[in-house]
Amino acid sequence: MAAQEEETFYVRSLLDAANNLNSILQKSPTPQSAEGKGSLDTCRHRCDVLLTKCADTTAITADTAKDCLQEYAQILLDFTFIHENELVDENFPETTTSSRIAKILGYFDSLLDLAKEVFPDIQPMESLGVELMECVLWRKGALFYMYCHQTWPDTDRLSRNKTNFQQNLRDGVTYLQEMLAVRRPLTVDQCSERDDDDTFTLMKSGIFSDTHLLALMYAGEMCYWFVKGQKEEDFDSMADFKAKDTGTQLLKSYIDAIKGPLQGSGWNTDRAQQILRYFDD
């Protein structure tokens, strides 16, 4: 039997990134909320532990490097979540939101770059794992959704930020679609004996969690805002963004899941059906 090929990895890059993150955490202002302060303290402690684990780079195996990379990712996600919550609590202030969102997205992008740098021969999804990869994309898309949800009702603010708003809608939908595509829908052969029919039906549709359902609804509603904006706010067309078709597909998948396997589980389709009727007008 052929020997398994040894995985190439560069832990020095991870150690440098962890040191940099530790510096950012130490310099980060104390959040106003008690929850935010507790989260920041936890991030600092976990980063200290990670640095200790990574200190002897010569003793780290590929599996250990993956564990360390995933821990780094969790710390970064928890840290950025503090900033996301602050934006929500402050109702996405118009003067600072764009730069703060860009900074948060920059952290996410740097994580994916680091994954490629530490493990250059495999995709970030393989080194980070499916759930972390989905989480990064979900957080990107959900951040744009929350911003657009706050901005959409404010017509004056919308008119001042129309171009940026349109781009954020398109980007938000794209990130959520990428999140939904991380895992391939299951086939019959992949369904384990313990999976009941309803669970398999959801997984066959590419729905593996409540977050996947929310992603369908969030992306569908952002498509609706874009279509409505084209009709009422003079939004520009985007050749690479078929908002009506995309939104229709996403919301039908959401409704099929709620009215099928998840019927009676507390999910509601009223808003999704309202949007589909608007698309049909």
Describe this structure in words.
- The protein is mainly α.
- Helix 1 runs parallel beside helix 3 and helix 10 packs antiparallel against helix 11.
Task: Give the gist of this structure.
With 281 residues, this protein is mainly α. It contains 12 helices and no strands.
Layout of helices and strands, plus pairs?
Layout: H1 11-27, H2 34-54, H3 62-89, H4 97-118, H5 124-128, H6 130-151, H7 155-160, H8 162-180, H9 197-204, H10 210-232, H11 243-259, H12 270-280
Low-confidence stretches: none
**What coarse outline follows from CA principal-axis ratios?**
globular
Mean pLDDT: 91
Given the helix and strand composition, which structural class is it?
Answer: mainly alpha
What kind of sheet is the major sheet?
Answer: none
Report the oligomer.
Answer: single chain
Q: What radius of gyration results from the CA coordinates?
A: 21 Å
Strand content: under 5%
Counting DSSP H or I runs of 4 or more residues, the number of helices is 12
Q: Got a strand count?
A: 0
Order of helices and strands: HHHHHHHHHHHH
Instruction: Calculate the terminal CA-CA distance, rounded to whole Å.
Output: 63 Å
Indicate the percent of residues in helices.
over 70%
Features:
281 residues; mainly alpha
